[in-house]
Specification:
The chain is mainly α and about 210 residues long. The chain has one domain: Helix Hairpins (Orthogonal Bundle). About 75% of the residues lie in helices and about 10% in strands. The protein has a two-stranded antiparallel ribbon. The mean pLDDT is about 85.
């Protein structure tokens, strides 16, 4: 429902204050939108890098696939995630998660009691899991940043397409009305003056 505008000087002042406020906020919103775009580009580039790395690691693991049958029961204790290290970074007012790596369980084992290339297979398996978690966190970052970009864009559109034009139109209407009222008041005053002067002349003639 459209706002009902009162046709008076108080309303005119209020609309001018609103217009000034919207114009002041708009550049800040534009800057925030650009920040989101910049960070989105960085995150999407990093996703591509991590996905390429993931493919490389998976190809390396494939070369050791014959050994997984022997290593599987033991390997699972060494690829168990103990902690995913993360933090929160503020990006233009949004809390964006950051990935810092994965800590794995590290039980003791005998070099001589483990199959050939156990350490190599274990490390590649850990690399694949770390890539997976990095990509997952990057996707979460992308989602948060895109949501911030979308909401900021909507607010900019609201200011540019509705609020600012609405204030301008309200200012125009109130200004025109007040000018008409002033002109009418001047006209009435002139008529009243002429009538007073005419009455004074009649009294003198009498």
């Amino acid at each position: 429902m459209a706002e009902r505008i009162k046709l008076n000087k108080v309303s005119l002042r209020t609309q001018k204050q609103k217009l000034a406020l919207y114009r002041r906020f708009l550049p800040a919103l534009e800057a925030r939108k650009q920040q989101f775009l910049m960070h989105l580009a960085i995150v999407r580039k990093e996703i591509a890098v991590q996905e390429a790395r993931m493919q490389e690691v998976l190809q390396e693991i494939t070369a050791w696939s014959a050994l997984y049958g022997d290593m599987g029961p033991l390997l699972r204790y060494f690829i168990e995630i103990r902690e995913i290290k993360t933090s929160i970074r503020n990006v233009a007012g949004l809390k964006v998660p950051q990935f810092h790596g994965v800590d794995f369980s590290d039980p003791p084992y005998s070099f001589f009691a483990t199959p050939f290339s156990f350490e190599e297979v274990m490390q590649r398996s850990r690399d694949a899991i770390a890539c997976r978690e990095a990509i997952r966190m990057l996707r979460e970052q992308e989602s948060v940043l895109f949501d911030g970009f979308r909401k900021t864009s909507q607010r900019i559109n609201l200011y540019e397409q509705r609020l600012i034009p609405g204030c301008r139109e309200a200012i125009r209407k109130v200004s025109v009305y007040l000018q008409d009222q002033q002109a009418a008041s001047v006209g009435v005053a002139k008529v009243a003056k002429r009538m007073t002067e005419a009455a004074a002349l009649q009294d003198v003639a009498a």
